Amino acid sequence: MRIGFVGAGRMGRPIVDRLVAAGHAVTVLARRPEARAAAEADGLTCAGTVAETVRAAEVVFCVVLDDAQVRAAFLGEGDGLAAMPEGAVLVQHTTCDPGTLQVLAEAGAARGARVLDAALSGGPHDIAEGRLTLWVGGDDRVLAEVRPLLETYASPVMPVGGLGNGQRVKLVNNALFVSQVGLAIDAVRVARQLGIDEAAILAAVQHGSGASRALGIVAGMGVTAVGDHLAELMLKDVLVVREIAERTGVDLGAIGGVLSSAAVEQGVLRGGAPPGRSAVAARPAQTAMKDH
């Protein structure tokens, strides 16, 4: 298929590689000079604008930095939706406000373009092994059209209902994950007060009913390092969860309490935050929303 790919960075480029290996013709837009140079060095076709990237594409992928860049590329100055051919599909992978998907769909409908909300979970290593998780919101018939493309790099590809639900599932998942990491960090604090050191409690609990993926990550990195690794990845999602909950009146309950705890604020989200200042307050939402 003819594919336009907007955003060939940390996550986008390995997806491009899997699509090319499967025999598809991919035109890439990479904004960073080093990313474009790497793409050209590997023989990829590069475009200079969003419109050039999508103009002949049957399917367009969006893997950019944040909600603002999605809107700029496809609704604003990039004018991507207006440049897409009639009948083309936009697969939107970037973490964003669920409402953005509805705006994209309404704008695309005027051109006959369709939109899928394909929130992702995992990293570049998962893409390389074809096991990225995708939570897909949107029309099942559109998903059926592009599923063979998605399955070149993702498994499972899970339909989760209407447009925007992919993003909602991802935000709930990441809020739960961050909470679990925070609880694991706090469990180490409790264990220390009981006279058990960090390595011992983390090794022991991994074999008990308190085990989880989050606990395993804390055990592998250590309490001191885990926040430095996760802050850039998770802060944006905590910000969006809080913003959406406030706007829609959703009660975050126990999850909200854990997300506001010192264990999460200082232990998980502290990267880049001045000492003694809330990590969530340290960065505005528009700059913190970095896709992973």
UniProtKB/TrEMBL annotation:
Residues 164-252 form the 3-hydroxyisobutyrate dehydrogenase-like NAD-binding domain. This is 3-hydroxyisobutyrate dehydrogenase. GO terms for molecular function: NAD binding; NADP binding; oxidoreductase activity. Keywords: NAD, Oxidoreductase. Transmembrane segments: none annotated. InterPro entries: 6-PGluconate_DH-like_C_sf, 6PGD_dom2, 6PGDH_NADP-bd, HIBADH-like_NADP-bd, HIBADH-related, NAD(P)-bd_dom_sf. Belongs to the HIBADH-related family. Residues 2-158 form the 6-phosphogluconate dehydrogenase NADP-binding domain. Pfam families: NAD_binding_11, NAD_binding_2. It comes from Trujillonella endophytica. Residues 273-292 are annotated as: Disordered. It comes from the Bacteria. The keyword Hydrolase does not apply. The active site is at residue 170.
